[in-house]
Design brief:
Layout lengths: L5 E6 L3 H11 L5 E7 L2 H14 L6 E4 L7 H17 L5 E5 L4 H10 L3 E4 L4 H12 L4 E2 L8 H46 L6 H24 L5 H12 L19 H9 L6 H15 L19 H24 L7 H21 L4 E4 L2 E4 H6 L2 H7 L7 H10 L3 E3 L2 E3 L4 H29 L4 H7 L7 H28 L2 E8 L2 E8 L3 H5 L3 H66 L1
Parallel strand pairs: 1-2, 1-3, 3-4, 4-5, 5-6
Antiparallel strand pairs: 7-8, 9-10, 11-12
Helix pairs in contact: 3-4, 6-7, 9-10, 10-15, 10-16, 11-12, 11-16, 12-16, 18-20
GO biological process, one term: phosphorelay signal transduction system
Protein name: Transcriptional regulator
Pfam family, one: Response_reg
Length: about 600
């Protein structure tokens, strides 16, 4: 397909099989195994790391679809296929699996997998399948039998034409990317010069003219050397080869609205000038990767979602992430202006909470309470006021995050301004987005704990087994009650006085807590009652601390002087006198004995 070798990522839980496959494939000079992975989490982390270094670092994934005949193993394999095609829609996948269930293979094909070969396939046929699937074609081994000769000839002819088209497309795309990169470098330099203070009117006019010429050149290069995207080629080939299949069903946690193929193409082609949509795609892809981490709470603060099973916790966070993407799409389509975000921020958060609650619990799901059946969602939505006051309205920097994603504004966090699209801005936006997801998830669970906490159907379907007994549930609710009191009366006033926010983020070991700087002068003025008393106590402590420290230091020095210079010396003289007296007595006793 090209001069460079195809780059492969091998995914299989059997390390011996991976080693044998790697050795066999590396006998072919046009194939290169760039990495291996054993678990679904390792796959996503490996792809994220490789993509951050080079978007073209992997050409195809060779994947085992479950390592056993258990339903759970097969479903995890299908879920991994869905996640890979959602996050990396242009990345081909070839199944190399011991499973041969036709229904399972059809389900994998519907997710967007490009081909299948059973384990034990001759290496020459496997290499052919890898080349075809990597080129955007398909290769499905039916019931362990080879295709007929006529079909193979037709496929070979189609494949040759496809390869020529791919080569031409890649050559033109390389020309376009090279030209855009040079123009972007010059454009960045001219833009930086325009921001230099003290320019004369003539110098500013010349630089502005150069900038307009560069923008016009960029537009011409993009349009004159435009090529069909790889996603479009894949879509065309799949429409020809899978006409007998119905449209693939949407995944349970689809993030297609968050990470569109066009956005990923744009990110790869012009990383220095990301569009707001591409900023969103990059941010959401990173967040999806982090959702594969363990989700246990490793902070010293109780969280409402701690009561959920790990799979339910992850499911809820996926749903909220999808709802955030939907909300951003709605805001874009309504052509909202940036200054309106402050006015509708609370409405956006309320809608996120409401939609996530409905989807997570099911719109018409019912549980038995006493002798009657009640709809879960109807009960939970009645608690909107408390949820909004206690959790949603206290989520910080939501307006700044949405402005960054919608309008590509610079992100101001920790009293620093981060340029939109920069690595630092992405890191800060990740923190804000992760905290938003966790806090909205807390708001979804909070009404459940207030009204339906001890319902048996709820406990068995949602709760962690460690917290399923009535005693453990009550202890958990008491911990949350103390958290609210401590936060309202102590923790939050202290954070306001210290000009900071406490945020929750996804870390490799679980949900962690970080602190960021943020001026909160207006909130400080509005404090009253016990919170105000706490801040006054802190201020009083800060005011007297230096004087008290100096006084204690002076008193301590005096005590040390008295003990060492006066008492110590006096005690030393007394002890020495005693020892001398004892020595004289001993000497006299010795002389008397001699006499």
């Amino acid at each position: 397909m090209s001069d460079r070798p195809l780059k492969l990522l091998l995914v299989d839980q059997d390390p011996i099989f991976r080693l044998g496959l790697r050795v066999a494939l590396e006998e072919f000079p046009y194939l290169q195994v760039v990495s291996e992975a054993e678990t679904d989490t390792a796959v996503l982390q490996t792809l994220a790391e490789l993509a951050s270094q080079d978007p073209t670092s992997v050409d195809i994934v060779i994947l085992e679809l479950g390592n056993s005949r258990s339903i759970q193993s097969q479903q995890l394999g299908l879920q991994l296929c869905r996640q890979l095609k959602t996050q990396y829609p242009n990345l081909p996948i070839l199944l190399l699996s011991s499973l041969q269930d036709r229904g399972l293979l059809m389900a994998a094909k519907a997710t967007g997998v490009g081909g299948y070969c059973p384990k034990g396939t001759p290496i020459s046929e496997l290499v052919t399948a890898i080349q075809e699937v990597a080129a955007g074609y398909s290769h499905w081994h039916e019931s362990g039998q080879k295709d007929t000769e006529i079909t193979r000839r037709k496929d070979a002819d189609k494949f040759s034409g496809f390869v020529f088209t791919q080569r031409l497309t890649k050559y033109v795309e390389n020309l376009r990317s090279s030209g855009i990169a040079q123009i972007d470098a010059n454009l960045a330099a001219v833009t930086a010069q325009l921001q230099t203070p003290g320019l004369t009117v003539l110098e500013r006019a010349v630089l502005a003219g150069q900038r307009r010429e560069l923008l016009a050149s960029r537009w011409l290069v993009n349009h004159l050397l435009a090529t069909p995207s790889r996603a479009q080629l894949n879509e065309q080939s799949q429409s020809r080869l899978f006409e007998e299949l119905p449209s693939p069903p949407p995944a349970n946690f689809s993030t297609s609205s968050a990470i569109a193929p066009s956005d990923l193409t744009q990110m790869q082609n012009a990383p220095s000038l990301l569009s707001p949509r591409a900023l969103q795609a990059t941010l959401f892809a990173s967040c999806i990767n982090k959702l594969q981490y363990p989700l246990q709470n490793i902070t010293d603060v109780a969280l409402e979602i701690d009561i959920l099973r790990p799979d339910k916790k992850r499911e809820l966070l996926y749903i909220i992430l999808q709802k955030v993407a939907d909300a951003l799409d709605e805001l874009r389509s309504s052509q909202i202006e940036m200054q309106q975000l402050s006015e509708i921020k609370n409405k956006i958060l309320y809608d996120l909470w409401r939609e996530a609650t409905i989807e997570f619990f099911g719109k018409f799901s019912r549980v038995k309470v006493g002798n009657t059946f009640v709809e879960i969602v109807n009960v939970l939505l009645q608690n909107a006021g408390v949820v909004q006051v206690e959790i949603l309205n206290k989520i910080p920097l939501v307006r700044e995050l949405f402005a960054y994603l919608l309008f590509q504004t610079d992100l101001i966090v920790d009293n620093k301004s981060y340029i939109a699209g920069s690595f630092e801005a992405k890191e800060q936006a990740e923190i804000l987005l992760e905290n938003l997801l966790i806090q909205v998830a807390n708001s979804v669970v909070q009404p459940l704990l207030n009204y339906l906490a001890d319902v048996e159907d709820i406990k068995h379907n949602f709760y962690d087994r460690k917290l399923i007994s009535s005693r453990q549930i009550e202890r958990f609710r008491n911990d949350l009650s103390w958290k609210y009191r401590l936060r309202n009366y102590v923790t939050e006033p202290k954070a306001i006085f210290e000009s900071r926010y406490e945020l929750f983020v996804f870390a490799p070991r679980g949900i962690a807590k970080v602190s960021i700087y943020a001026p909160r002068t207006q909130e400080l003025r509005e404090l009253s009652g016990i919170p105000l008393f706490i801040t006054l106590g802190l201020e009083f402590g800060d005011a007297i601390a230096p004087r008290l420290q100096s006084l204690l230091s002076f008193l301590g020095s005096g005590v040390v002087f008295v003990l060492t210079q006066i008492v110590g010396r006096g005690l030393g003289l007394i002890v020495r006198g005693i020892l001398q007296g004892i020595g004289s007595v001993s000497l006299l006793e010795g002389k008397n004995k001699k006499l």
